[in-house]
Amino acid sequence: MSGGKKRIVIAGGGTAGWIAAAALSQQMGELLDITLVESEDIGTVGVGEATIPPMRTFHRLVGINEQEFVKATNATFKLGIQFENWKQVGEKYFHSFGVTGKQTIVTDFIHFWLRGRELGFARDFGDYCLEFKAALKERFSLNNQAKLNYAFHLDAGRYARFLRARAESCGVKRVEGKIAQANQNTDSGYLTSLVLESGRELAGDLFIDCTGMKGLLIEQTLKTGFEEWGHWLPCDTAIAVQTEAVAPPLPYTKSVAHSAGWRWQIPLQNRVGNGIVFSSRHMSEGEAKDKLLSSIEGKTLTEPNVIRFKTGRRKKSWNKNCIAMGLASGFLEPLESTSIHMIMTAVTRLIQLFPHDEIKQSVVDEYNSQAESEYERIRDFIILHYKATERDDSDFWRYCRDMDVPEDLKHRINLFRDFGRSNQVEGELFRLDSWTQVMLGQGVVPSSYHPMVELMSEAALKSLLASIAEKVDKDIAGLENHADFVKRYCGSM
Ligand code: FAD
Asked: What is the pLDDT of residues 360-389, one digit of tens each?
């Protein structure tokens, strides 16, 4: 790299490009000269509207005012995801963002609950979780008495524009145009500049590839390679459509499984994002489109948008002087709303490992190893939803039920079934509570509980469980109707 300010060129201005631009300019702006190039003719993928709670930490890092953000992006609050028809047709469960019961050092809450259930006095598992009950009762608040762990449903296009305004105010230069070619140093293979169709050349020291699934720099230029995971996650196509809202927005995402995949419903303030995800080996595009259109409520606002995808990750997220973020770095289906989060961790990781004078291989290796492990852990959590099914009503579900899964996941399922333990690995995104809720929801039930819970008398256990559930009920009473809260929150700026 040259002395003075490092020249960063961000290729692509979708959610990934603008998140990268906003974070780098906010955190390191004085050290960097950042240019972002995007093409209105090409456009963005136009989806990506459900998020998870760590987004709030990222927003604090970048200095985003939450109220301004909610208003600007037509956002609503999200307390979790309701899964319908995943374990069995007609059954539902909830993956909430909250803690269920109480954290104990020795053994997990689920063991107390299992014993209580055996003794006949434990309520449903979700009754011990504030976020779960608040979601189903459509309640929300930001008061400090009942602190909820939450995320957002947002308008992706508005979010990119919101971030763009922030990034530009921190000095990021935006260039409109189509990248025609990337130049490389003939010896090192490092990227040296991007040439636009207009002939304009953008030289840089570090290039961030946010050009979407094709990975213009990381793949088409640097031929990094792609590790495919379609054998574990067979869905490969989505169709998205927006509709008018016909009911007040729910504070949770809906994921409804069908015979060859699932469909989503994401409620915003003014409209609903809907989509269907399916395996093209098991369902035709026409059938999927009919299924989607017959399941939606409200007038359609957009034409159905068909998106084909390949599940997997780029073999290296960082190759030479190019770092891929967003869809350019890989794709995991949006079942647990993890992609935007992974863009945020990618740019945070880059800031933490930012190259000083020159790019050192140890730093690149560290970045790639962290990215790889993040991808694989999230991948395994998503596979769990498919593998642990009792559905037997279609070739798709029989395939999922019978498929071989990664060793780590096999171990986790066995450990939970044999011992009631959800093993959380250090630094892992999904916590013990998430693994436990999805395992139970999908029908993986521990065969026994930890013997230590028997040291507690029946009366003490009964009183403990009752006190947790009562506290949840009391906290719920202090919350507001979610739709009323959003209206008031956005109106009070
Ligand atoms: P894109 O939006 O594709 O942006 C690519 C950018 O590169 C555009 O600005 C384009 O103009 C530019 N570009 C490309 N080629 C050129 C060129 N030659 N010259 C100049 N510019 C160029 N994530 C979530 O977190 N939650 C969700 O609920 C969720 N749902 C999803 C549903 C589906 C069906 C899919 C496919 C993805 C979903 N995602 C979700 C993922 C999320 O949409 C993406 O992670 C996010 O939008 C980032 O996309 P991107 O910026 O990487 O790519």
From this structure: 999 999 999 999 999 999 999 999 999 999
Q: State pLDDT tens for residues 231-261.
A: 999 999 999 999 999 999 999 999 999 999 9
- Ligand 1 centroid, distance to 212 Cα (angstroms): 5
Round the CA-based radius of gyration of the chain to a whole number and report it. 23
48 C-alpha to center of ligand 1: Å?
8
| Predicted TM-score (pTM) of this structure | 0.97
pLDDT, tens only, 282-320: 999 999 999 999 999 999 999 999 999 999 999 999 999
* 300: DSSP letter: B
| Residue type (1 letter), 110 | I
Q: What is the dihedral of CA 363, 366, 369, 370, to 10 degrees?
A: -110
Residue owning the nearest CA to atom 38 of ligand 1? 48
Express as a percent the part of the chain with pLDDT over 90: 92
From the CA of 18, give the closest atom in ligand 1.
Answer: 51
Q: Which atom from ligand 1 is nearest to the alpha carbon of 275?
A: 34
The DSSP line for 421-442 is ---PPTT-SS-HHHHHHHHHHT
Distance 198 CA to ligand 1 centre (A): 24
- Cα–Cα distance between 50 and 11 in angstroms, integer? 24
What structural domains does the chain harbor? 6-49+155-230+314-359 (3.50.50.60), 101-147+380-480 (no CATH), 237-308 (no CATH)
Lowest mean pLDDT among 276-280, 312-316, 420-424, 433-437: 420-424
Per-chain mean pLDDT for the chain: 95
Q: Mutate which of 18, 35, 42, 76 to test ligand 1's pocket (most atoms within 8 Å of Cβ)?
A: 42
DSSP lists the bridge partners of residue 314 as: 226
Comparing 2 with 136, which gets the higher pLDDT? 136
Q: Give the binding-site residues of ligand 1, using a 6 Å CB cut-off.
A: 12-17, 37-39, 42-45, 47-51, 156, 178-179, 210-212, 216, 238, 240, 275, 307, 309, 326-328, 334, 337, 339-340
Determine contact, residues 301/270, Cβ cutoff 8 Å. Answer: no
For residue 286, give every residue at least 6 positions away whose Cβ sits within 8 Å of its Cβ, in sequence order, or none: none
Please report the atom of ligand 1 found closest to the CA of residue 177.
Answer: 20
Q: How far does the centroid of ligand 1 lie from the alpha carbon of residue 429, in Å? A: 21
Name the residue at shortest CA distance from atom 18 of ligand 1.
179
Query: Tell me, what amino acid is at 407?
Result: E
